[in-house]
Input
Amino acid sequence: PAMGSPCEVLLETEDRDMAATAGEIVAREAWRIEDKFSRYLADSAVQRINTAGGKAVTVDEETARLLDFAETLYKLSGHRFDITSGVLREVWTFDGSDNVPSRQAVDAVLERVGWYRVEWDSPRITMPAGMEIDLGGIGKEYAVDRCVEELKRCCDAPGLVNFGGDLAVSGPPQRRDAWRVAVEGDKPDSADRVIDLRQGALATSGDARRFLLRDGIRYGHILDPGTGWPVSDAPRSVTVAADTCTQAGMLSTFALLRGKGAEDFLDEQGVRYWCRR
Output
């Protein structure tokens, strides 16, 4: 387990020692990234920023790259992707219940949301007291890509790294045509579709496990940082194939943030995708 998800590495080999070593290397890298960027750990890079009380924080090169990437996503998404919106979890808990917060409660938290309020001049970040960043929207996909690179360095056998349904392969399998990947459907542990993957990555965003339901209205967990409310008319699930897991995750999240325009957005990108409404 890592980053709130079941994680696995699959390796096509009969060399048990190689497989064990590869598993250890991938796990170690995944846990390193989790420890460094978790908002739950007091000594993580993220928490040092979140608890600075308005003071400037100088970050290391890896953290700076992720913050640069987050800022790029913020601009590319028309400010829809915002790593400061994580504080909205204080009023939104997507546990399948009907506990939809009041508009007043959402508006109160929304005053602490907005990347435009942050001063980012790499490698220094200054954030108003009370605001937070949360790299959960890109951290898992970044970890998958980093672990695939580690896998390529440690062994020649083709492998697949899967962190909670976001995955990438180090190469096509040799004993079959492709890696067969099932995408979860409406019900947990049920397959919505099966995809043959030979190279690259897949990422899925959706509300199969994280939602609220009140008066027949389903509220998905993808929030619009401009309003503080779930994006309306969004697909139930979007799966995107891309060269890297980071790219696939970015596109699937962007699509959900577009709501009813999700498919048009993905068509414009010219990527292979699967969308369920």
Notes: The CA atoms of residues 201 and 245 lie 5 Å apart. The longest strand covers residues 191-197. The chain is about 35% helix and 20% strand. The two ends are 30 Å apart (CA to CA).
